[in-house]
Amino acid sequence: MYNTRTFTDKFFLVIKGLCMGAANKVPGVSGGIVAFVAGFYEEFIYSLQKVNGKAFKLLLNGRFKSFFRYINGTFLSLLIFGMLVSYFSVSKLLDYFLAQKELFVWAAFFGMILGSIYYISKDFEHWNRKTIIAGLIGLIVGISISFLNPAKENDNLFFIFVCGMISVSGMTLPGLSGSFILILLGNYVLLLVDSVNSLYDTFAEILRGDFSFTSNSERLHTLTILAVFTAGSATGLVSLSHLLTYVLKHFKHITTAVIIGFITGSLGVVWPWKRTIFKTDVSGELILDSNGKEIISNYERFFPDLGSMETWWAIFFIAFGVAILLLLDWYGKNRKEAELTM
């Protein structure tokens, strides 16, 4: 099945990667939701689970084709390619709209998550005492995470490794935003702003033939942090996929119920009507990151003013977000029917 992908299938895999990459970057939104709703979540988890001892043996023995086939390489490489492209294109566009029309962007995401709850739960016919309890646990955990207060920044390398393992959960666990988890851990700016900027600056200097960064202790420390974070992310991605593969095989209905509850609970994170609380120093002055931008500390949520035209535009974008998921549902049904008639 994996080796008979058409050009259209491959094209849409890159598009799905673009969507996952954009979702992973926004605090409160999970790339795992994209995978779940777009119908490739299980294949994604099972493919990651194939990155194991046997795969490394094939690689070390020079059996590259066998290695690529074993880990479902076409699927993973196209998806990861889409994610990488997203970080330099779609996510930049998203940053622009968040800066210009933040309320409408959050409203659209809120609508998409509402739509994804409907999409996931509409065909779930396994509600019983166990799955209801599992769903409630997921709901409580999701709500609890939404209202946690962030910790202080911590550049301890062991903690950075743990941050990498936890933050990557946004790719593998629908409803859990890796970016938002990094805000709660206090290291969002350090790991997704400062470290990435240091890497860009280093590459730019190398291309100019400038290797002065090798004597810059602060730059080397930041690059070490990024390397440890990347190693933690890779470790978390593979280890979580093994755990999720086992859970999906043995407790599929309970896992789905937990995911439905968790995504529902996570709606608090993407509630459109909120004020951003920025970090300040002891004198009340705003603290800026290496890009000169304010650092998000948390959000203060409030109910909208129904007399405001802006509120009704936001409600329109919520409906628009729901409509996107309904269109995906319609597309999926039509595609299945077309495959059955072939």
UniProtKB/TrEMBL annotation:
Pfam families: VCA0040-like. PANTHER family: INTEGRAL MEMBRANE PROTEIN, POLYPRENYL-PHOSPHATE TRANSPORTER. Keywords: Membrane, Transmembrane, Transmembrane helix. The chain crosses the membrane at residues 67-88, 103-120, 132-151, 157-173, 220-247, 254-273, 312-332. The keyword Transmembrane applies. InterPro entries: VCA0040-like. The keyword Ion transport does not apply. It comes from the Bacteria. This is DUF368 domain-containing protein.
